[in-house]
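pls design
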């Protein structure tokens, strides 16, 4: 299971990190290096988790039932339901 430090960052610092990560990701995409960028940066577990989250969003966009998504991806119903609520209010563009 991934570990997140219990030490909280200041909101300003966290926003800067998100911004820098976004720029690095965009730069790797422009140079067709995204696969290598993510491969070097993420653990196997993190890559699986990220791929499953993208799959959930895609399947929700195709009006696939939550129960089917949870069973197919081996994720909890509550996680899919939470993501579904966010999807419904436009959190995932």
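designed seq:
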């Amino acid at each position: 299971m991934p570990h997140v430090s219990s030490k909280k960052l200041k909101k300003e610092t966290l926003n800067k990190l998100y911004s820098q990560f976004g720029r690095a990701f965009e730069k790797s995409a422009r140079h067709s290096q995204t696969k290598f960028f993510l491969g070097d940066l993420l653990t196997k577990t993190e890559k699986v988790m990220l791929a499953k989250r993208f799959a959930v969003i895609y399947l929700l966009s195709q009006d696939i039932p939550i129960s089917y998504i949870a069973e197919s991806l081996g994720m909890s119903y509550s996680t899919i339901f939470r993501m579904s609520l966010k999807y419904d209010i436009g959190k995932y563009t």
